[in-house]
Amino acid sequence: MHVDSRVIQVGTGMIAMDLQEKVTILREGFLVKRGHLVHNWKARWFKLMPDKLIYYKYEGGKRDSCQRGKIMLKDCVITCPYLEYDNRPLVFRLQTKTCVDHFLEACSREERDQWAGDIASAADKLEDLEGGPDEGDDSPGVSPTTPGSSQPTHINLSKVLEAMYDVHSGINMSSHVEQGRMYTNCFSGSAVVDWLVFAQLALSRSEAVTLASALLEEGFLRTVGLRSVEALRTAGPSELFLDDSTALYSFSDNLKKRGCVKAETKLSTVELSGHVIKRGYLLKQGQRRKNWKIRLFVLRSEPSFLHYYDPTKDDIIPAGGFPLRGSLVSSLDDNGVPSGVKGNIQGNLFNIITQSDRRYFIQAPSNREKMDWIDAIREHT
């Protein structure tokens, strides 16, 4: 179904689903979602089911088995395209029957329209079904703020981080002992909560925990010691951070590197003038830290370049890129981990070796997408 109109009203109705229908996946892939409480953008793996849209986080190179949230489709309204974000023209909006807005961004106009159309089609079918009890509208991670609650509605995490890191008024770092081991330059979970409330960045301790969890999830804070590491490993989406004097945290190791400009981001206008051949979300291994990040890749011709962007940022400047002339691209076997590859591997791995002998390891969401990317890149090397 192609979505032509700005707004699609989906019919009402109730649905009873058997076990087989509940595991039916109509569509799946990467989308970038705006946070519900903290309005930053995060890449998530989405699955479209007959009655809901569920999403997961990618940890390293593998999808987290823990569901991060769900959006029920009954009585929803889709707006496609949603043109309120100047630097994000590929966004569409899904509004639930309780008027909770969810903003989702695809990697291309075709993908955006296909996602919106498939969601609308699934929701349309709910109108014709009757029966069992009506499910809840949203999981705790995406539910609207209840009346009288003090949850944050719009928070700039970078500003919070800068305030915490301020040498004069920020949080105090000190040494702590946990299970006989000394940790330096860190702070307890309860100290973070105390500071956020004292600095009036949160109105309550529960709100401060939500904010601290967002800082931790975005990598601005890191766990220190066994207590906080174990809590992060076993916690649910709303329990990442512990308001506890025995749980230790610290600033991210690369915090002091803020503001530095990588050489690979200095791109010329000529590089970006080529015709766009292909776009899509892929997982890329970092050159230094060897961690896996979701990136929006754009293949251009005349001249032939492959650029990649951080989809969580509004920047229109690529995070990096390289010319394809003289490059070699090849598929890597999913059996075993090739030399130079670190972390969790989902599969569908390929690499690109540039003319300057720099190696890029990339994972595609599926084998078909991997081969499509390999074929497209080879045509321009």
Estimate the global geometry from the Cα principal axes: globular
- Strand residues, percent: 25-35%
Radius of gyration: 22 Å
In N-to-C order, the SSE pattern is EHEEEEEEEHHEEHHEHEEEEEEEEH
The strand count comes to: 19
Q: List the uncertain runs.
A: 1-22, 130-153, 256-266
Distance separating the two termini = 36 Å
Mean pLDDT: 78
Biggest sheet: strands, sense, closure?
8 strands, antiparallel
Measured as a percent range, the helix fraction is 10-25%
Structural class computed from helices and strand pairing: alpha+beta
* Strand order, sheet with most strands: 1-6-7-8-2-3-4-5
Number of helices: 7
Q: Can you walk me through this structure?
A:
There is one protein chain. With 381 residues, this protein is α+β, with helices and mostly antiparallel strands. The protein is built from seven helices and 19 strands. It has helices spanning 19-22, 109-126, 157-165, 189-198, 205-217, 225-234, 367-378, and strands spanning 7-9, 27-34, 41-48, 52-59, 62-72, 77-79, 91-95, 101-105, 174-178, 181-188, 221-224, 248-251, 275-285, 292-301, 305-309, 320-323, 328-331, 349-353, 359-363. The chain has an eight-stranded antiparallel sheet, with helices on one face. It has a seven-stranded antiparallel sheet with strand order 16-15-14-13-19-18-17, covered by helices on one side. Strand 18 and strand 19 (359-363) form a beta hairpin. Helix 4 (189-198) packs across helix 5. The longest helix is centred in the first third of the chain and has 18 residues, at 109-126. The radius of gyration is 22 Å and the shape is globular.
